[in-house]
Amino acid sequence: MSLPLHTPGTADCFCDIPIRYRYRRIWWRAGIAGRPGAVTRLTVTTNDRCVRVPMTNSNPASNSAYQYLDAVDPAEQARLDAVRRYRLVDQPVEDAYDRIAFVAGAIFDTPIATVSLVEQDRVWLAACQGLPGVREVGKEPGLCASVIAQDGVYVINNAAVDPRTLDHPLVRGELGLRFYAAAPIRTHDGYRLGTVNVIDNRPREATQRQLTALEYLASMVSDELELRLMVIRSAAAEQRMRETVT
Question: Which of 130, 198, 211, 118 is nearest to 159 (CA)?
Answer without folding.
Answer: 198
